[in-house]
Amino acid sequence: MTDIRQENIIVDQPIPVSAEGTKKILFQMENCICKIYQESSKKGTGFFCKIPFNNNLLPVLITNNHILNENDIKDNNIINLSINNEIKEIVIDNSRKRYTNSDKKIDITILEIKENKDGIFKYLELDEDDIYSDKKNIEFEYKKKSIYILHYPKGKLNVSYGLVNDIIDNKTINHYCSTEDGSSGSPMLSLENFKVIGIHFGTSQNTNFKMNYGIFIKYAIDLFNNKYKLKNEINIIYKTDKEGEENIFGDKFVENNKNNIDLIINGNKNNLIDKYKLKKGENNIKIIIKNKISNLGHMFKDCKSLINIKELEYLDTKDINNFAQMFKGCSLLSDIKALENWNVSNGNNFKFMFYECSSLSDIKALKNWNVSNGNNFQGMFGKCSSLSDIKALEKWDVSNGNNFRGMFFECSLLSDINSLQNWNVSKGNNFVAMFGNCSSLSDIKVLQSWNLSDFDYNFLI
Predict the structure, then answer these.
(1) Are β-strands 233-240 and 281-289 bridged in parallel, bridged antiparallel, or unpaired?
(2) What digits encode the pLDDT tens for the residues 161-214?
(3) Where are the domains of the chain?
(4) Does the domain made of 6-226 have the CATH classification 2.40.50.100?
(5) E strand segments, 227-364
C-alpha cells in the first residue's frame, strides 16, 4: 500500500460542475468506458485509448490486474464487455500477443486490442503534456487540480468529482473522488482538458481520511514501453565444440546487410563481413542493428552452433517480406518460443525457413502467425526430423500459397496431419513431395477435402 503524505492533505473544493455538465460529460464519454465483469464475480471499470509505442499509437484497453488479467482471457482472445449497456465482444490482438501486459506490482493491465473499425467503442485522449514530458516535478503541478473519474459503481455508469491531493514520485496519485465497489480501473481525467491523467485502483486504509489512489498514466505507459519496446541490440549464444571459424550469419544475409549491422563477439567489435574466430564453448554475440532491415532471408543459414535465440523476440518484423532460409541448417535449434509474437503479416516468402532444423520438435510458438500474404512455403519444415506435432498450424491462412513443394519433406516422425484438412490451398500449383519420405505417415486421405482436382494425391508423398 502506498504511503499517504498526511501532512499534505488538502481541503480545497473541486471546480463545481452542474448537473447539465455532468450529463454532457457522460454522453460524450459513455462509449469510451466499459463495465468489466468476470465469471469469478470480479467487476470493475475499463477504458479505451491509444498509447505511444514504438513510434506508433497502439489501441489498448486499460483496467486493473485484479479485475482483468491474463487468466481471464479465453483461448479465442475475445473478452465480453458492457459498453453503453450493451454486451460487446472485444478482440485481443493475438498477432502481437506479447504486448498483453499485466503488471501485478502496480495492479494495472494494458491489453492491446484490435483497431476499432466498426464503431463499437471510442478512445479517450491522453494528456500529451504529461505523456511526452521529461519534467521531474509533475507531482507539484497536479496538486489541487480538479479531476473527475468515470466509473461503474454498483454497475451503473457515473461520474465523480474531486481533487488531486498529491502525486508521489511521479507514480502514485492520491485523490478525493467518491468511489465504490466497481470503480477499480476507471480513468482519472483533468477537468481542464478532459484528458486522462491516471487510472484509479484502490482506497487507502491507513488514514482517517478516505483517500483514493491511482497510477499516473505516464508511469504506466513508461512501464509498458520499457518492457516491450523493440530493441536495436539482440544477444544470441553460440556453443562451439572447437575453436575456429564459424558461420554467424548466412552469406547472402551478410551481403544484403553489411552496412546495417555491427557485431560484438565476446566483448570485441567485429566487421560483419569478416570471418569470425569463435572460442570453444559458449560465445556471446551482440547484434547491433544500425539501420532498418527489410529482408531476413538466410540470416542464420547453416549456423549449426546456434542454440539460443531468446532475444529475437525484440526484432521488429512487421515490414519483413522475405524469411526464406532464415534458420536453414540450424541443427541445434530446438526452442523457437521467441518467435511467438512476431508480426509476419507482410511475409510472402517462407521457403526453407526451418529446413534441416533437426532438433526442432515444438512449433507451438507459430500458432498465431499471420501468414495470409505468404505464397511460397516450399520446404519450410523440410527435414525437421524431430517434428511430430503440427497442430499449431491448424488455423494458418495459406489461401495465397502457390508453392507447397516439400513443405514437410522427410519429417520422419510426423504421423498425424488432420490439423491441415481445412487449409485453403486453392491457389496452390506445386504440391510435389509435400509429405515426401514422411515414413511415419500412412494415410493422407484426410486431405481429400483440399479438392486437388488437377493433381494426383500421390504427388504429396
Answers:
(1) antiparallel
(2) 888 888 888 788 888 888 888 889 999 988 888 899 899 988 876 555 567 888
(3) 6-226
(4) no
(5) 233-240, 244-246, 261-265, 268-270, 276-278, 281-289, 306-308
